Amino acid sequence: MKTIIVTGSAGLIGSESVRFFADKGFRVVGIDNDMRAQFFGKSASTEWNRDLLKNQYGHLYQHYNLDIRDRTEIEKLFKEYSTDINLIIHAAAQPSHEWAAKDPHTDFTVNANGTLNLLEATRQFCPNSVFIFTSTNKVYGDTPNYLPLKELETRWDIEPSHQYNDGIDESMTIDNSKHSLFGASKVAADILVQEYGKYFGLKTASFRGGCLTGPFHSGTQLHGFLAYLMKCTIMGEPYTIFGYKGKQVRDNIHSYDLVNAFYHFYQSPRTGEVYNIGGSRYSHCSMMEAISLCEKIVGKKLQYAYAENNRIGDHVWYVSDVRKFAAHYPEWKYKYNLVKILEEMYSSQVSRL
């Protein structure tokens, strides 16, 4: 039986990967120790999602409560499955700017050292497998904020004549910018993934995501923009907009569309690749536009406050240019636009109340 290892398997991208590949008949080995609850509190725990996966997939899903920083245990697991491993999807992370600044050692060891442990275990025990890393657009730091942006009624947007009008591509520099400590730890991991491909010849890829979202996201104020926004709208809880007049723009990609991109790469892998991946112009919005959509779907107003200071290193405008990936894998297409994402998110959250 084909075997896939998924780290962060109870989180948004991890659990989508479990479902996607288990439905295709893969045996899925999940690694997740629910550090999200440690990062963001009990309300952000992913235990509910872990239990859903166990119940739904039975013997096809085998869960391990491991810490990716534990090199001994990771190598023990990889040795157990060895060359049966066809694919590793590494989605475990400390994902918050603010949290990283509170505990830089934990942030770096999870994001960077944990990735190194997984790459080295791959090289030792299953060097022919495919290794996919869920990276982030934060590797570009705040460089996007120096693009020529103009203020419109509900959003910031780039000058139409600019080379990045269709989105930011992989040519943007990652140097000489403020990344946040989270961004720095993800840069380290991203470069490691590239290097294990280019230096050792492993089949690796870093997918630099925009906003990753979907119905299985345990959104909190510090992470999970759309999921947390929808939750606050449904529950009538207060929401805070941080800076930029609420006109900051993000592209949003559904977890299914991202994991489907992983699947296309797995079927025809390359070595040490980098892809910007997100909703692109197909699925993007400003904060104010997202609020309006949530209010329309839920049928009531969001109670929100505005804080003048933006989050450190936050982007004013970020839209991913996915044309490189689409050129390499032309059969990959989006399934979800922004409205479909939010409608599904609404139904999912209401069903769990």
Write up this protein:
The chain is an alpha/beta fold. The chain has a single domain (3-352), classed as 3-Layer(aba) Sandwich (Rossmann fold), CATH 3.40.50. The chain is 41% helix and 19% strand. It contains twelve helices and 15 strands. It has a seven-stranded parallel beta sheet, sandwiched between helices. Strands 9, 11, 13 and 15 form a four-stranded mixed beta sheet that branches. Helix 1 packs across helix 9, helix 4 (71-81) runs parallel beside helix 6 and helix 8 crosses helix 10 (287-298). It is globular and about 55 Å long. The two termini are 37 Å apart. The model has no long low-confidence stretch (mean pLDDT 95).
CATH fold assignment: Rossmann fold
What class would the helix/strand composition place it in?
alpha/beta
Order of helices and strands: EHEHHEHEHHEEEHEEHEEHEEHEEHH
Number of helices: 12
Write down how many β-strands occur, each being a DSSP E stretch of 2 or more residues.
Answer: 15
**What is the terminal-to-terminal distance?**
37 Å
Give the CATH superfamily.
NAD(P)-binding Rossmann-like Domain
Q: Low-confidence stretches at least 5 residues in length (pLDDT < 50)? A: none
Number of domains: 1
Q: What proportion of the residues is helical, as a percent range?
A: 40-55%
Please report the first level of CATH classification, the CATH class: Alpha Beta
The best one-word shape is globular
Mean pLDDT over all positions: 95
Going across the biggest sheet, name each strand in turn. Answer: 3-2-1-4-5-8-12
